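Running log. JK asked me to keep both predictions on one page so they can be read side by side. First protein, sequence followed by its tokens:
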Amino acid sequence: MTHSQLKLFVKIVDTGSFTRAGQELNMTQPAVSRAISTLESELGVTLLIRDRRKGIVLTEVGKRILVLFRDILKGFDKVDQEVAAEKGFEVGLIRIGSFPAASAHFLPKIFRAISEKYPRIRFELHEGSIDEIKEWLAARTIDVGWIIPPNEEFEAVTLLKEQMFLFMREDHPLHQHDRIHVKHLDQEPMIICKGGYEAPLYELFEQGGSRLQAQFIVHNANTALNMIEEGLGMAIMSNVSLSLSALPPHVVIRPLEPQPYREILLAVPSLEESSLAVKLFIQTARELFSI
């Protein structure tokens, strides 16, 4: 196996195409096919299957080897970064996983702080759901990512502990209260916003002895707000500073009792095995945001 073969295999998986992988690595289509055939012959197993409907499909052993190949390639990157650091400058690529609200809140300041000092460090952003980010971390598709508890398999630091509030229409009877106990939400139609709100929400209702009636499930906070404005239910989400820019007309916020919180973590598969660039990213994030 050669470095170029490993890099090509991972590129094919990431792009989902022999052709696009070859284009990005300046290789002809026949050269790409030969390299993968040689790699599979050397290993004695089939790694990839070309399916007319599904495109490139990894075999089961291919899925396991992909994780190992990513670790090996990361090892090459770490060598390059160590050598560069010895010469007095930082280089490297940081692959980051984030959900949209975290991207908007954290990344601009982190990118600016690192780029001002280390302009040769590059960033690659993958945006998705919390579950997708955890899958990317496990598969080593990304180096570092923002996640929400529960977390048992990754090393993580808490960057933010944000208060969650009740959002409702201003004509709802409960709006007259300055603070609303969760027991008053028993069987009220709730709009569940995914992306890390689910776990603290279910815990809140369980602690308060109330039954959670999930009327709608959405993926976007602004969608939930617009549905509240139409009188379709209430939602419990984080404060305005992170995920909400402006409230629609007729939507109000009330604090809850007991007060729920949501933690946002910055996670890596292994801090010890992380590259210098990734450690710098984590250090910068902690200096800027850590509670």
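And the second, directly underneath as requested:
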Amino acid sequence: MPSVIPQWSLLGCGALGGVVASLLTISGQSTRVLLRDHHQSTLHPGTDFTSLEGQVQLLNIERGFVSKPGKIKRLLVMTKASQVIAALTPLAGKLDAAVPIVLLHNGMGIAEQVVEMFPHNPVIAGVTSHGAMRCGHFVFRHTGKGETWLGPINEAAKAHAALADELALALGQAGWDEHVLARQWQKLAINCAINPLTALYKLKNGELAGPRFADVLQQICVEVADVMCAEGIATTAEELQRRAMTVVELTADNYSSMYQDMELGRETEIEAITGFLLSKAAKHGIAVPVNQGLYQAIKEKSQAV
């Protein structure tokens, strides 16, 4: 194990994790990717990264394993929402209490569980709209530039706003928001609108812009806005729909992560996205029939794969 502690340790190397690890490395920030132990027996080549501009680079990014992670300065968790707790479990009781844990996944409801597992660590939530694709074994393509925001989940995290500046060196933009919960909800609303529809109907994101989906997108946003307002997050259905359609246009040629998961027979993030919305709606006694129907359809289709 090298004596130098990497600036970033990344847990999870899916599409977005691979792209972020590559961008951090290119920006000159030392990065280690922590893999699951079953990867120990396989040969790990360099990371093949294609930038937004189409430039291809072979990067030498350090690999480690969760069972022997080495010294960690700050931990960036890039797994899918459903895998976060299982991925962090080997580090419970071993991670130094001063190490900030940054969560960068779709959906909500996970950060609170992480705080329970690591009560003394700074826990930071992040949202990002960067597009990423995994094209093969350690082959990644950056498919869209977006915004990234970090914010504190617990009191200890408030001392780590500078992490956003360091991420900005790699991602082009990253900001710190003490009220990141509102941004998480806005991202959740966009995911509720785009992900289930594209997965069910096997569409590129841009195909949601047509008149066929105008009514259902409006209904989804009305329901999400009702729940957000009940949760104390001021918004309107019109604002949420405008945000969702902006993302649809910016990522027109992309396939959503839920579409890709369904096509490959992988577990989707429906529980942390629409499932989280349904749990909050039930808490407030708010009917969300369109989102409920999409949730059921994804669950049934996932079981049939």
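Observation for JK regarding the second prediction: The mean pLDDT is 94.
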